[in-house]
Every structure is written in structure tokens, then in C-alpha cells.
């Protein structure tokens, strides 16, 4: 529910609920406060009972004045009627030709008489207006004289009860409005303020460098959207810091590994130079041997620096890929032919296997794909221990991607080392020597290049039997559905 809807509903509730509660409380107050007047409990209810009797009796007196006015000069009738009216807090005054012929004893005869007989009086006195409800009836006596009937109903009973009831009713109204609006305001404000407090606490923790506290408001309104955006920001910031720390750790590891790997050839070059300087290489064959060692160590350093430079650009995503559509079957077949003619493959059988017949069109960078295959084969040659070494390039055609399998029959890789062979500077042998000419970056570069082209790489190995390196390359849409070529991977 949105905040706008929630506020609208709260405004409606602030209007509707107090009205309903006030009506309920008013009814309850009336029933409790006027229980005697309302006839609650014993059923006799003097107020309403007297009110009904009062109405009936007054109506009877008025009827008599109109139909049989001469009875109003009968003292016995007037006395009986007055006794009944007094029981109902009502007094009777009869006038004939502007003279008072009868006045109830319970009325203030002097004051009322003066008000009734003074022709200059414009109205009843203040006390009369506040105390009595007056009904009048004009009639004519049997002898033709003018008559007037006044019925004074005492309102003190009603006023005394109402003077206590209405203030309580007003206080009840104020209480209902205050409690209802206060409670609704509290609930609405808490629903808005609490998540804001949670966001503030999270912001303070982030300011202090703590990114571990999750922000989960569990709301679907605007504040929930802000909380979700804040949580996404926290996650990205946390990932960014973690990645930065990883980069820093990698940088330290890179410097340490470079220092270690460069130290070996430099030490060899230094030893050869000292040997020549000290006269140890006192014959031409010895000097030629020392110079060959220096050249070899220099080549190793140059290759190591090239691989470090290439890996650094791949790791920082600064090496562009020239992706194009390639017939992978023809490409691997040509690679196999080139490797057979390579002097480094002397004595090594290089075979290509592909069960299909047609082309396999993939998206790849030709130059970097060759680097992938060369690094895998170089790694196989460095750890080859068979008298008849074999390397097989096999192409497996899939629905959305093609898989290349490069398998050797070398010494294999131990199971505990297999998950780490694509880590940089990782070597399966315990000692970090460079006798094999390995920088520890060959397969790490393979992983970076393959993943940079949208593929994935993995390895399978059996100790003593050989190792198989697999990598995939995405196929073009033309290869998938036969009508479009996509070169923009």
C-alpha cells in the first residue's frame, strides 16, 4: 500500500471513526445518565411517563376550554385538574376579561399576575422564560366573555439533568476525537518513522565502515522502494570494497610472484656473468655455454614479462577482443597441421577429431584463440612424461556453443590441485621452481581469454593417465537458427 493511500485512509478514519464512536458513547451516556428518565430498569421511567401524562392532560384541558369552557369556572373541576397538573410540575392560570379567576398555588401568583394583567408587558419575565414552558389557549365563555388559559410547565427537572449531561457529552466528544486522532496519528507516524530510523541507522553504520547490516524494510510502498535502493547500494558498495581489497591482495601477490619468478633467471644470469668475469669460462666452449645460458635466461625473463603484461591487461579488462565469425572446425584442423610441423612437437603425435561434417561457426578472436590453444599445449608439453606423447584436439558441437577438448597422455594432475590450475602463479608441484620455464600464468591467461569471449573453461585429469582441458565458445545465431549472423557478442 502506497503512502498516499495510507494517508488518505487515515484521514477517512479520523473522520468516520470519531463520528461512530461519539454516537455510540452518546447513546450509552444517555441510557446510563437518564436511565430513570428513559425508563430503563424498572420500566416506570418517571420522565417519559410524566411527559406522556403531561401531554395527555394538557391536551384534555385545552379540549375542555374549547368545547366546554364554562367548566373552567367550576372550582371543583379546576381544583382536581390542578392537583393532577401539579403532579406533573405544571401550573394552571385562567383569565376572564383580562382578570385572573384561577391560579395554581405552586405558581408565583404575584409575579405571574402582574405579567398577565399588565398590558404594557411585551413578554414574560426572565425567570418565567427560563423556568417555564408556556402554552396558551384563547376561548369564549358561555356568556360571551373572553377567556384565556395558561399552562405553565416547570422545566427545572429537564434543565437540571441536561446541565450535567451535555457537558459530559461535550467532554466525550473531545476525548473521542483526541484519542482516535492521536492513536491513528501515532500508528501512521510510526509506520513512516520507524523505517526512516532503520535507514538512518544503516547510513550511520555505512559511515563508520560497517557494511554488514542488511536493510530489509519488508514494505511495498515508496519507503520500501527507497529501502530496496539503499540495500542495493549497500550491496554494490560492499562488493566494490571487497573487489578493491581483492585487487589489492592480488597486486601484492602479483608483486611477490614477479619478484620470485624474476629472481631465478636473474640469479642464473648473474652467476654466468661472474663466471666469465672471474675467468672460469677460460675456453671458447665454456664461454659459448655460459652465453647460451644467459640467452636462455633472458628469453625466459622476456616471456615472463610478456605474460605478466598480457595477464595484467586481461585482468583489468583493458585488452580489446576482435570478435568475428570463425569456422572452428577448419580453424582447429589448421592448428593441428601447424603443430605437427612445429619443432617443439618433435616426437609428439598431434591429432584432430571431429565427429561432424559441416562447419561450426563461433564468435571468437583468432589471435587470442591461438594463444589459448598454445598455452594449453605448452602446459601439456612441460609435464609430459610418456615415451610416446600424444595430444588430441577434439571439437564437440553443441546447440548454443561449441566445446574444444585438448587432451594429453601426460603425468596428470592430482585431484586436490585440479580446482586451482587456472589460478595465477599456481603450480601443482610443491616447490616454486622455474625449471620447466613455467610462469604460472599460462592457464590463468587461458581462463581470462575464454571468459572474455563469453565461454567457460574447466579441466579433467587422472593421475598417471593424462589431462583434458575443455573450453567453450558461443556459436553465432546463424549457426543456431540458420538465418542471422551475430558478430556483436
From TrEMBL:
<dbReference type="InterPro" id="IPR005467">
    <property type="entry name" value="His_kinase_dom"/>
</dbReference>
<dbReference type="InterPro" id="IPR003660">
    <property type="entry name" value="HAMP_dom"/>
</dbReference>
<keyword id="KW-1003">Cell membrane</keyword>
<dbReference type="GO" id="GO:0005524">
    <property type="term" value="F:ATP binding"/>
</dbReference>
<keyword id="KW-1133">Transmembrane helix</keyword>
<keyword id="KW-0902">Two-component regulatory system</keyword>
<keyword id="KW-0067">ATP-binding</keyword>
<feature type="domain" description="HAMP">
    <location>
        <begin position="190"/>
        <end position="242"/>
    </location>
</feature>
<dbReference type="InterPro" id="IPR036097">
    <property type="entry name" value="HisK_dim/P_sf"/>
</dbReference>
<dbReference type="InterPro" id="IPR003594">
    <property type="entry name" value="HATPase_dom"/>
</dbReference>
<feature type="transmembrane region" description="Helical">
    <location>
        <begin position="165"/>
        <end position="188"/>
    </location>
</feature>
<keyword id="KW-0418">Kinase</keyword>
<keyword id="KW-0812">Transmembrane</keyword>
<dbReference type="InterPro" id="IPR004358">
    <property type="entry name" value="Sig_transdc_His_kin-like_C"/>
</dbReference>
<protein>
    <recommendedName>
        <fullName>histidine kinase</fullName>
        <ecNumber>2.7.13.3</ecNumber>
    </recommendedName>
</protein>
<dbReference type="InterPro" id="IPR003661">
    <property type="entry name" value="HisK_dim/P_dom"/>
</dbReference>
<dbReference type="Pfam" id="PF02518">
    <property type="entry name" value="HATPase_c"/>
</dbReference>
<dbReference type="Pfam" id="PF00512">
    <property type="entry name" value="HisKA"/>
</dbReference>
<dbReference type="InterPro" id="IPR036890">
    <property type="entry name" value="HATPase_C_sf"/>
</dbReference>
<dbReference type="GO" id="GO:0000155">
    <property type="term" value="F:phosphorelay sensor kinase activity"/>
</dbReference>
<dbReference type="Pfam" id="PF00672">
    <property type="entry name" value="HAMP"/>
</dbReference>
<dbReference type="GO" id="GO:0005886">
    <property type="term" value="C:plasma membrane"/>
</dbReference>
<keyword id="KW-0808">Transferase</keyword>
<keyword id="KW-0597">Phosphoprotein</keyword>
<dbReference type="InterPro" id="IPR050398">
    <property type="entry name" value="HssS/ArlS-like"/>
</dbReference>
<feature type="transmembrane region" description="Helical">
    <location>
        <begin position="7"/>
        <end position="34"/>
    </location>
</feature>
<feature type="domain" description="Histidine kinase">
    <location>
        <begin position="257"/>
        <end position="477"/>
    </location>
</feature>
<keyword id="KW-0547">Nucleotide-binding</keyword>
<keyword id="KW-0472">Membrane</keyword>
Amino acid at each position: 500500500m502506497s503512502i498516499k493511500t495510507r494517508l488518505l485512509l487515515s484521514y477517512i478514519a479520523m473522520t468516520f471513526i470519531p463520528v461512530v464512536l461519539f454516537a455510540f458513547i452518546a447513546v450509552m451516556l444517555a441510557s446510563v445518565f437518564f436511565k430513570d428518565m428513559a425508563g430503563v430498569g424498572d420500566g416506570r421511567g418517571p420522565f417519559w411517563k410524566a411527559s406522556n401524562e403531561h401531554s395527555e392532560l394538557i391536551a384534555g384541558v385545552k379540549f375542555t376550554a374549547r368545547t366546554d369552557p364554562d367548566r373552567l369556572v367550576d372550582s371543583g373541576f379546576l381544583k382536581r385538574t390542578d392537583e393532577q397538573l401539579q403532579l406533573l410540575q405544571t401550573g394552571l392560570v385562567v383569565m376572564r376579561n383580562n382578570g385572573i379567576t384561577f391560579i395554581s398555588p405552586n405558581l408565583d401568583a404575584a409575579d405571574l399576575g402582574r405579567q398577565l394583567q399588565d398590558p404594557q408587558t411585551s413578554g414574560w419575565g426572565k425567570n418565567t422564560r427560563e423556568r417555564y414552558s408556556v402554552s396558551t389557549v384563547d376561548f369564549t365563555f358561555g356568556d360571551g366573555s373572553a377567556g384565556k388559559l395558561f399552562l405553565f410547565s416547570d422545566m427545572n427537572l429537564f434543565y437540571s439533568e441536561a446541565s450535567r449531561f451535555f457537558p459530559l457529552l461535550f467532554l466525550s466528544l473531545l476525548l473521542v476525537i483526541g484519542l482516535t486522532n492521536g492513536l491513528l496519528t501515532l500508528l501512521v507516524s510510526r509506520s513512516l518513522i520507524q523505517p526512516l530510523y532503520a535507514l538512518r541507522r544503516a547510513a550511520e553504520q555505512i559511515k563508520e565502515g560497517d557494511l554488514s547490516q542488511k536493510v530489509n524494510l519488508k514494505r511495498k510502498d515508496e519507503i520500501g522502494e527507497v529501502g530496496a535502493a539503499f540495500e542495493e547500494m549497500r550491496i554494490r558498495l560492499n562488493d566494490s570494497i571487497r573487489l578493491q581489497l581483492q585487487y589489492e591482495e592480488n597486486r601484492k601477490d602479483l608483486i611477490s610472484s614477479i619478484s620470485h619468478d624474476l629472481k631465478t633467471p636473474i640469479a642464473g644470469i648473474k652467476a654466468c656473468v661472474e663466471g666469465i668475469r672471474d675467468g672460469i669460462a677460460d675456453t671458447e666452449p665454456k664461454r659459448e655455454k655460459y652465453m647460451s645460458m644467459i640467452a636462455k635466461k633472458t628469453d625466459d625473463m622476456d616471456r615472463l614479462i610478456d605474460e605478466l603484461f598480457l595477464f595484467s591487461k586481461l585482468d583489468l579488462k583493458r585488452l580489446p577482443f576482435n570478435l568475428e565469425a570463425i569456422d572452428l572446425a577448419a580453424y582447429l584442423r589448421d592448428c593441428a597441421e601447424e603443430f605437427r610441423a612445429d619443432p617443439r612437437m618433435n616426437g609428439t603425435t598431434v591429432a584432430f577429431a571431429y565427429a561432424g561434417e559441416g562447419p561450426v561457426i563461433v564468435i571468437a578472436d583468432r589471435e587470442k584463440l591461438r594463444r589459448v590453444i598454445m598455452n594449453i599445449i605448452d602446459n601439456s608439453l612441460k609435464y609430459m612424461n610418456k615415451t610416446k606423447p600424444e595430444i588430441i584436439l577434439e571439437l564437440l558441437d553443441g546447440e548454443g556453443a561449441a566445446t574444444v577438448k585438448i587432451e594429453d597422455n601426460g603425468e596428470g594432475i592430482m585431484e586436490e590441485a585440479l580446482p586451482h590450475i587456472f589460478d595465477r602463479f599456481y603450480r601443482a608441484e610443491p616447490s616454486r621452481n622455474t625449471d620447466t620455464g613455467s610462469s604460472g600464468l599460462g592457464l590463468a591467461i587461458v581462463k581470462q581469454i575464454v571468459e572474455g569471449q563469453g565461454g567457460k573453461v574447466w579441466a579433467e585429469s587422472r593421475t598417471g593417465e593424462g589431462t583434458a582441458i575443455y573450453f567453450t565458445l558461443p556459436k553465432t545465431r546463424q549457426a543456431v537458427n540458420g538465418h542471422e549472423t551475430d558478430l556483436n557478442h
